[in-house]
Design brief:
By secondary structure, the chain is an alpha+beta fold. It folds into 3 domains: 109 residues, no CATH class; 82 residues, no CATH class; 152 residues, no CATH class. The chain has 14 helices and 13 strands. Strands 2-3-4-8-1-7 form a 6-stranded mixed sheet, with helices on one face. The relative contact order is 0.09. One of its GO terms (biological process) is RNA catabolic process. It comes from Rhodotorula taiwanensis. Its main location: nucleus.
């Protein structure tokens, strides 16, 4: 029985179900730029058939359910559970088929991240482009947190070689390299950390830009000031991180009335850094974080919200949420599953309980002290009454002793 999938991808991608023609695109299995785990990519041509040289790259991510849940897709009034039929939908959604209720997403991907990841570990020498790819293809990629099995040491060689022959890859590799002419007329390349950092900072600033970034325009900077006018949808584009914007506003760290434009900008930049760091090796991600200082944001957080959940956590594609500070272990790099995250949420108390835990109780008396004193008063009262009764009962006996003595 053939495996079925539901995919969302650009309408320009010439992919067909059960097609082995030379015009269909070929998937490439490459090391992920951050984790070196096997990742799936699809080169394609935005301007012509796939037989021409591809000029764009897509990352393929699969959204699946937990093992204890079941779900399926209904397509054209038919439940796609295990049948071999193929169904086509709109130009924005291609349905090859559906088996387990999962969803495959094809999203645009910049080969620059792969170039930085692969080149940053090579010796800093001028080398020809062909020799660069020979070194990359023969390199043993080890996944984060665990070494790759010996029989899989060459699992990427064929696809890495094919990937290196693409024109769009050669262009992006040259963007992060210094070059010099060789005696035979060929061009030699050497990875430049400064050029890579410049391009990465440009990406961070573009994501955080109020005009066409992912957060939208800045909020009013004065408490009594009206909110700045929203830009047209065509100018701002789709805001993919509206939940993040609301979270920043809820924590009063990056949005809302009364915050200066500098604080809002720096908080957006800090979050955008972690978005970009999802596709960077830990050493390069550390350099990117160190390139920003955030003086206004740090001063504000030290007084208001020193431990911002939104600013310290970001989404890792296909791997749940995880903190990105430091090199970390496999869990720090997003190895947790949805089940682990759900158990963690269940182990926590309600929002009110968690908020009460953060209340400053310095100088306040504990409940044990208050109820302890009350209990002491309650127990001492019966004791005093009992002593009075005991003294009264002792009086007759004393009188008897006096009578006996007089006799």
């Amino acid at each position: 029985m053939e495996r079925k999938h539901v995919c969302i991808l650009p309408s320009a991608v010439p992919i067909e179900a059960n097609s082995a023609s030379p015009t269909s695109s070929r998937f490439l299995r490459l090391p992920h730029p951050r984790t070196h785990q096997p990742a799936l990519f699809l080169p394609y041509s935005k301007t012509g058939p796939a037989s021409e040289s591809p000029d764009a790259l897509l990352e393929v991510q699969r959204i699946s359910l937990d093992a204890d849940k079941q779900r399926c897709w209904f397509i054209d009034e038919e439940a796609a559970s295990g049948r071999s039929g193929t169904h086509a939908s709109s130009d924005r959604t291609l349905t090859i088929a559906a088996l387990d209720g999962s969803l495959a997403m094809f999203t645009p991907f910049d080969p620059l991240f792969l170039a930085i990841s692969y080149l940053s570990t090579l010796p800093p020498h001028f080398t020809s482009y062909a020799d660069v790819w020979e070194s990359i293809a023969q390199r043993p990629f080890e996944a984060s947190g665990a070494a790759a099995p010996e029989d899989d040491a060459g699992q990427f060689v064929e696809d890495l070689t094919r990937f290196g022959h693409l024109d769009l890859v050669r262009e992006r590799f040259a963007a992060v390299c210094d070059s010099q002419d060789d005696s035979d007329g060929s061009v030699l390349l050497r990875y430049s950390a400064s050029k890579a950092l410049t391009l990465l900072r440009a990406k961070v600033d573009a994501l955080a830009a109020p005009e066409d970034g992912i957060f939208g325009p800045l909020a009013a900077t004065e408490p009594g000031e009206e909110r700045k006018p929203e830009l047209d949808a065509a100018a701002t584009g789709a805001q993919a991180y509206t939940a993040v914007t609301r979270g920043l506003g809820k924590e009063d760290v990056g949005s809302g009335h009364g915050l200066s434009a500098e604080i809002q900008t720096e908080s957006r930049q800090k979050y955008a850094i972690e978005v970009v760091a999802n596709y960077l090796p830990p050493p390069v991600a550390k350099e990117l974080r160190q390139a920003y200082e955030f003086p206004a944001l740090k001063a504000y957080l030290s007084l208001v919200t020193p431990n911002s959940v939104v600013l310290n956590t970001t989404y890792l594609p296909g791997r749940g949420s995880a903190k990105l500070e430091g090199n970390g272990s496999a869990d720090d790099l997003g190895g947790g599953s949805a089940a682990k995250k759900r158990k963690l949420e269940q182990s926590k108390g309600s929002r009110g309980v968690e908020a009460l835990k953060k209340v400053n109780t310095k100088g306040m008396k504990s409940l044990a002290e208050l109820f302890g004193k009350q209990a002491a008063k309650t127990t001492s009262a019966p004791g005093s009454a009992g002593s009075k009764a005991a003294s009264q009962t002792d009086k007759p006996s004393a009188a008897k002793k006096k009578k006996t003595a007089s006799k």
